[in-house]
């Protein structure tokens, strides 16, 4: 049994009442004239960047994001991963190699629950484009034969698939990696105060415009399509990555039964976990991104064990409690 702090439902209600409405958002103070902002669309989601620098670095930000996209984006038909998905192998670049190796590591630590080859199963259960189940829904066992990152390897600089039908989708780690890459570029240019957010995945460094660590509001998991967001709590942190994953807004109905969007890579079927959302703090946003996804595909005890073994801090929300790793409490704003 992994020891984690548990807050009961009454505590959740009190924090929601006190902290008001917010999704994973910056809770800012007064701004500084030296801080700049950049934002736009990337990989079918929004990105927001705030940084403290003497010059506009947009002409450096965009090439970094474009480089990551050309390697890892499934939305770019000319990307390396798109080429890999249509062939048996591809020569890897540094971006694909780093993300693939980290994916394999977290796949092993999570006992297979994080797997970037699970896309055919997601499509088969109707969570792909159009949210319509296909005929493959009745052939899950057949799909499982070519799902699994363990069926692939890097050899002599090439990423090789045992089965040509294996498909990679690094969406559950690429946004975090993109955040880290922009952060690396900032540091090379002498910028050490920044916040980079892509689709809710965040990396922070130095100080915010208010001169303090960056303050982030954690969204309460609310089922359905309600666009209002209730905050569970506010945390203050810097020099790390942050990611939240949840299965409470993306689902399909089978009669009166709700099928969550999390698919188990091992069974090939929708996984029903006690966990409604997982928030992870890790040294890099890439790690936080992948770990949060792995938690959502794991039983509660396994998710807690994964975070403790990885030495990451996490917040796991269930229907009636909020569970925190021992070190998470230090980030909470009193």
Can you summarize this structure?
The protein has 334 residues and is α+β, with helices and mostly antiparallel strands. The chain has helices at residues 9-19, 58-72, 80-85, 94-109, 119-124, 140-144, 171-188, 285-296, 300-310, and strands at 5-8, 35-42, 45-52, 89-91, 152-155, 158-161, 194-198, 201-205, 214-219, 231-237, 240-246, 251-254, 257-260, 277-282, 313-317, 321-324. The radius of gyration is 20 Å and the shape is globular.
Describe this structure in words.
It is a single chain. The protein has 334 residues and is an alpha+beta fold. The chain has nine helices and 16 strands. The chain has helices spanning 9-19, 58-72, 80-85, 94-109, 119-124, 140-144, 171-188, 285-296, 300-310; strands spanning 5-8, 35-42, 45-52, 89-91, 152-155, 158-161, 194-198, 201-205, 214-219, 231-237, 240-246, 251-254, 257-260, 277-282, 313-317, 321-324. It has a nine-stranded antiparallel beta sheet with strand order 1-16-15-14-11-8-7-3-2. The chain has a three-stranded antiparallel beta sheet with strand order 4-6-5. It has a two-stranded antiparallel sheet with strand order 9-10. The radius of gyration is 20 Å and the shape is globular. Residues 6-30 have low confidence and may be disordered.
């Amino acid at each position: 049994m992994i020891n984690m702090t548990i807050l009961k439902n009454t505590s959740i209600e009190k924090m929601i009442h006190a902290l008001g409405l917010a999704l994973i958002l910056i809770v800012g103070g007064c701004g500084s004239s030296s801080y700049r902002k950049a934002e736009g669309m990337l990989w079918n989601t929004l990105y927001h960047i705030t940084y403290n620098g003497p010059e506009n670095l947009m002409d450096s930000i965009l090439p970094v994001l474009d480089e990551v996209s050309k390697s890892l984006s499934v939305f770019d038909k000319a990307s390396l991963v798109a080429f890999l998905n249509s062939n048996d192998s591809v020569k890897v670049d540094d971006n694909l190699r780093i993300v693939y190796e980290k994916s394999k590591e977290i796949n092993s630590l999570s006992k297979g629950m994080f797997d970037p080859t699970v896309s055919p199963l997601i499509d088969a259960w109707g969570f792909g484009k159009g949210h319509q189940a296909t005929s493959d829904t009745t052939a899950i066992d057949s799909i499982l034969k070519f799902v699994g990152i363990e069926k692939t390897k890097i050899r002599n600089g090439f990423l090789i698939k045992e089965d040509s039908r294996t498909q990679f989708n690094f969406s559950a780690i690429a946004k975090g990696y993109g955040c880290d890459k922009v952060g690396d570029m900032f540091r090379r240019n002498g910028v050490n105060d920044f916040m980079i957010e892509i689709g809710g995945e965040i990396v922070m460094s130095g100080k915010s415009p208010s001169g303090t660590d960056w303050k982030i509001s954690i969204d309460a998991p609310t089922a359905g399509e309600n666009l209002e967001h209730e905050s569970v709590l506010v945390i203050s942190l810097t020099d790390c990555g942050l990611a939240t994953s949840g299965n409470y807004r993306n689902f399909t109905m089978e009669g009166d039964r709700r099928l969550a969007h999390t698919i188990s890579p091992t069974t090939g079927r929708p996984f029903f976990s006690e966990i409604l959302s997982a928030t992870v703090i890790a040294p890099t946003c890439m790690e936080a991104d992948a770990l949060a996804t792995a938690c959502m595909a794991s039983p509660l005890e396994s998710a807690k064990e994964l975070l403790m073994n990885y030495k990451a801090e996490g917040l796991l929300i269930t229907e009636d409690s909020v569970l925190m790793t021992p070190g998470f409490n230090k980030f909470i704003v009193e």
